[in-house]
Amino acid sequence: MLVLEKPFIDIDKQIDKLIGRGLIINDRNKAKKQLLKTTYYDLINGYKDIFLVNKKGEEDAYREGTTIDQIIELYDLDRHLRYSTLELLLDIECKFYSSLSYSISEIYGEKEDDYLKIENFKKGAIQRHNGDYERNNLLKKINKKIKYPNVQPLKYYKEKYNNIPPWIFVKDLTFGELVMLYKLSSNDVKKNVIKNILSIDDINDSIKELQQLDKTTYKRVFINPLLKKYNVNTVKLYHRLFKIAINAAVDDEILTRNRFNKISIKDPTSNEIESVEENFLTAGELNKLLKTTQEHANITTYTIILLLAYTGLRRGEAYGLKWSDIDLKNKTVSVNRTRDNKGTRTPKTANSYRTILIDDIVVNQLKAYKKWSKETLFTFGKKLINDSFVFISYQTGEPVTTNLILYALRKMIQKANIKSITPHGLRHTHATLLISKGVNVKVIADRLGNTPGMILDIYGHSFKQLEEESVNLFSKSLEESGADIGANS
Prior knowledge:
It contains 22 helices and five strands. It is mainly α and 489 residues long. It has four domains: 11-66, no CATH class; 84-199, no CATH class; 202-251, no CATH class; 283-471, Intergrase catalytic core (hpI Integrase, Chain A, Orthogonal Bundle), CATH 1.10.443.10.
């Protein structure tokens, strides 16, 4: 039978192939560099499976919204874990050898005839290759190494003292043999091993920190910073790996329990009522972001970010816009639906249905974007109609995936060198800037599709600050008029 080899495909064709299978590639040059650095096989074939929706045997098809950045993040995470794990394992292996030999010596003494007594060990399972217990097979190997040593320092101890103590004989054990020795040891030896490991300062500090670590601190110190840097699904992967490690420590009685099983990790951009105090930009920072995005991002990314900042729309509301919702003549945008990776549906609440005014900056950008959209759709043999979604991909002519803004905003924030915010932070920015100018709560609520009560709940700190400023302004206005009023004593 003739077996055909796969033909060589250059990097550009590899990228086109991935795009054709539904993988989103926002930065083609970055993707080329990554594929040249790691190869298609190592990066794509090695990490694609969890992102695929097709059945085995079918041509690859990626889940909606999957980007090559997510695959790269998973590759980098795995590489980091492998390097970190190797270093950690070498350290643990050294400490394990030392602690097990010390525990055996402490309980049974240093004489071969004492510490190798068969009653010191559990039988273990029956092994298929010879039908004998694990204990008997292991002791045969150990006794042979002690009786006829052929490596140093075992030979030296045998010749000089006619005895090989535990801390010497373990040097000729493989790590697998050492693990088996620990497995078959008595509970007293195992407890001593754990106790001895915990008494070693550098491990002890880490174990104590884990024993004392609570859920709140874990989320604040570990999870929340990761959510600012990575996609929520990547953070969930980190968390799952962390839980696996903790469960293993519990099984080995290094830790008493796993406190981290019931931790919920949510997309920080999906919650309406969230901490606003850090998740917004000043007017100066927003201007810098918009200028940077206009200069360095594609037209779709710039138009979305501009629209979110100037209208306070939710991310899903922007994705759900159709050209029938935009009235460029009367300068309005209407919210009639929302769209995310689960599809298109009705807006979040009854208040979310709304029509808001937009200014000339947004109107002019939407006009330019509409012209670009017509030209882009034409290249794909399509026509722009009123029922077309507003925001489309330059790569496919299809509606943009709902993760676009998440990655694009993060990239533009880094390039602009301003503080990090989430896409929902653009909505908070819009609201806080309106509040700072003294706009009525009802007007802001109508614009954002909320109730006045929700606006006060979410942005109460901004109104408090505005109230303090108004008090100072009142006093200042009286002073400027020449008033000389003080406390009446």
